[in-house]
Amino acid sequence: MSNAPAVVPEGVELTDGFHLLMDALELNGITNIYGLLGIPVTEIGRMWQARGNKFYSFRNEQNAGYAASVAGYLTKKPGVCVTVSAPGFLNGLTALANATTNCFPMILISGSSEREIVDLQQGDYEEMDQLNIARPHCKASYRINRPEDIGVAVVRAVRTALSGRPGGVYLDIPARLFSTVMAADEGKKSLWAPVDPAPAQIPAPSAVQRAAELIKNAKKPLILFGKGAAYAQCDADILAFVEETGIPFTPMSMAKGLVSDLHPQCAAAARSLVLQESDVVILVGARLNWLLAHGKGKTWGVAPKKFVQIDIQANEIDSNVKIEAPLVGDVQSCINALRAELKGYKSADQAAWASSVAEKHNSTRAKLASKLSTATPVMNYHNSLGAIRDVLKNYPDICLVNEGANALDNARMVIDQYLPRKRVDTGTWGVMGIGMGSAAAAAVETGKPVVAICGDSAFGFSAMEYETLTRYNLPVTVIVMNNGGIYRGDEASPDHQFSCMLFNPNTRYDQLSIALGGEGVRVNTPEELAKALEDSIKSGKTTIIDAIIDPAAGVESGRIGNLNIVSTIGKK
Q1: Exposure of 354 in the CB half-sphere (CA atoms within 13 A)
Q2: What DSSP letter does each residue of 439-467 carry, written as one string?
Q3: What's the domain range around 422?
Q4: Are residues 308 and 409 in the same domain?
Q5: Segment 131-158, tens digit of pLDDT
Q6: Residue 101 falls within a domain, yes or no?
Q7: Which pLDDT belongs to residue 545?
Q8: Looking at the structure, do residues 359 and 378 belong to the same domain, yes or no?
Q9: Is the pTM of this model over 0.90?
Q10: CATH number of the domain where residue 224 is located
Q11: How far is it, in rounded angstroms, from Cα 88 to Cα 46?
């Protein structure tokens, strides 16, 4: 079949690739696009805005991609990112790979060089075989060569991004396609929206019975929620499952708030105890990857564990340890099937276990509370985050974006979440630099204020995107935990060079905000921090709070210091 443009008779109304792509996106419910424009995709942004839609233009494609991926997570429809070819595509590809790893639905659309030149490596403008470079890093990678195929390509991208385990999809569009014309009526016929792009996947009745029996016979069961459970948006069903069974639960970081951190069955502050002593663990939308020590080792104690695992992807089962009761299906279907099978069942043994877990949880929180209120000459992570926590408890609907090492670990531990999908962080990869892109998407897609707590190192990865926040007047408060370095700011420098772990001690993040069109304030005490945060939220203005933290605060690599390789040469 020829790829040559069709000859359209004179007098026939025409359309082109630009318009067909926009028509297809609109038909699939897309109204917001994130990206960075240039050759050959500049006109997409202008025409998209002319239609009354929103195009959020970033300073770097990677951050635009992070925004699109978080939009997908929050809305359960693919976030769309548009980039230029080659270098721009590569910047966006990092975010696409991160979206796929985290199971966020996202579509990256990039212009590309013409195939006949790329395939012979003849040196086209920004020449790169983008289609094949993208393939290992996303669920699917498609190239569109004819305008009549734009509709089916967008449908395939939407269905692939949403169905099964969500993830990223790449659409490659050679530059010439954008201006290629065809008859408008034929173009309209080539477009449609997929019916039920993410169909329910019902678990087998025998699998449900097997899981229910394992739970009934458990002495010390535990529910462990991952962000897949939050993404499922079956919040009422999950809450009912927790309360009907009476089983303690602990959330992974982005599942915080799926059931309130203040719920009496929450065991987050007793995490070490429940992981080590539980005998049956019910994994709901969580993977036994490095974040859970692969389901083995001292993290999980000496007693053997039996796992019930709810996952929509069958080959995730048994990925690290034996899964006694796999439940393959979507979270909502599996949870409700388990509820029906366990109806009316509660064990006295399990009640005693739940009581002991609650006691440990409450004891740990009480000890932490004393640290949060302890005054120090210079703020540390505990009393600064304690001040933030006390403000945010009055604004449960605010989305919290969190990145860094110590800033991430401590905020996750200190700041309670009360509602689902109100925490966005570095996710499965622990990526640095997600802050400003994620904050932009959270503000755009929820229409609510956003607070971003960033380590000073993490903030540096996307700091110029703060201008993006001010340009669109987004109600985002960025708190930079400023201790002057990577992990901490008190490392001694060698005689010949400034330490590789330190930043300029005179850096003024609050002044950066003012220079980029926002509000800025520097704070030195928990009281000043609390007031600045309260004022910023109430004002709705884009603000940076430069929070001065003790340079000695922080530990290397946060909670994953054990993964850091240290030379032993010359050491005893």
Answers
A1: 20
A2: HHHHHHHH-S-EEEEEEHHHHHHHTTHHH
A3: 373-560
A4: no
A5: 999 999 999 999 999 999 999 999 999 9
A6: yes
A7: 98
A8: no
A9: yes
A10: 3.40.50.1220
A11: 18
